[in-house]
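Reviewer comment 2.1 asked that we show a complete input and output for one of the modelled complexes. We chose the adenosine-5'-triphosphate case, as it is the one discussed in the main text.
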Amino acid sequence: MLTAEAPAKVNLALHVTGQRADGYHLIESLVVFTDLGDRVSVELCDRDGFDLDGPEAAGLSNEDAHTNLVVRARDALRAAALRDGIDAAAVRIRLDKRLPVASGIGGGSADAAATLKALCRVWKFAPTPETLSAIALSLGADVPMCLHGKPLIARGIGERLEPVAPDFGLDMVIVNPRVGVSTPAVFSKLERRDNAALPAPGSLADRDGFIDWLAQTRNDLQAPAMRLVPDISVCLAMLADSGTLLARMSGSGATCFGLYASAEAAEAAAQHMRAARPGWFIEATRTLSPG
Ligand SMILES: C[C@](O)(CO)[C@H](O)COP(=O)(O)OP(=O)(O)OC[C@H]1O[C@@H](n2ccc(N)nc2=O)[C@H](O)[C@@H]1O
Ligand SMILES: Nc1ncnc2c1ncn2[C@@H]1O[C@H](COP(=O)(O)OP(=O)(O)OP(=O)(O)O)[C@@H](O)[C@H]1O
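Response of the prediction step:
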């Protein structure tokens, strides 16, 4: 049994700067990954299988097994392996679902990326980075960044990746009001698609300087998402009242994050917010280091 982590991605900043002829939006986004995530386990088997469990599995209970991103990742990688003459044998895949579904922290994309990584090892298949990136992108705009899995700036529709290496971790709390959000619905509600690019990256050497830089950036999807899901305003107000250094929405929502001065401050804020909203997904976490 081989296990691959599928860490949540958080868009610390997300600027929408244009739109392609095919409708996809051009973005500039500073992305980090957290120690909170799903887990994908893979083993060779007599015939293909897919098992789903974990605390957030119910969010996918109506999901047809053929449309789950884990299964789509398996099929896309197998097709590429077979083209290279590699016997991509039958596998049983188990998804331990811990991240809320359709929540702006890339759970499905992270699962797909983890599946690609695990199956490359199980099948002893080493596609070129270009081939692997193309397979990832065919599964979703966020899958290439999840494959990278370390802090980065994403451009294009999310597939042009520039690694960045902050010298510090960030303690954060993520809050999801348990309302799923459709990514295309949020993009379609944007008032402007020609927003300013990310300002030149600030210092990656000290956290406070970085947070000052971050405060000059935005998530352009936050306003349209708030119009669709009023609870996003509640998440942001709750974070603002909890001693956060900066609070914002991730991706197309509805998950919001707050940054804190320490792991203890993040944990205390999470506990306080959980007491106020017992049904919501509220977790203290820390960003994964670039190393
Ligand atoms: C908002 C972000 O999460 C930021 O990281 C991503 O841009 C979304 O990535 P994703 O969920 O993997 O997106 P996909 O599954 O590829 O696309 C879902 C839909 O979102 C819209 N979409 C997505 C990405 C993008 N750059 N522009 C878009 O307009 C398109 O309508 C697309 O049909
Ligand atoms: N393994 C999976 N986990 C989550 N969603 C999946 C999965 N497989 C397919 N999906 C479908 O993908 C849709 C988007 O789910 P996901 O949790 O990745 O959204 P998200 O967190 O908003 O992602 P992003 O931030 O990349 O937009 C869901 O509505 C669900 O139907």
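The pocket of adenosine-5'-triphosphate (ligand 2) is lined by residues 60, 63, 68-70, 95, 101-109, 111, 142, 183, 251-252 (CB under 6 Å). We note this here for comparison with the apo prediction described in Section 3.2.
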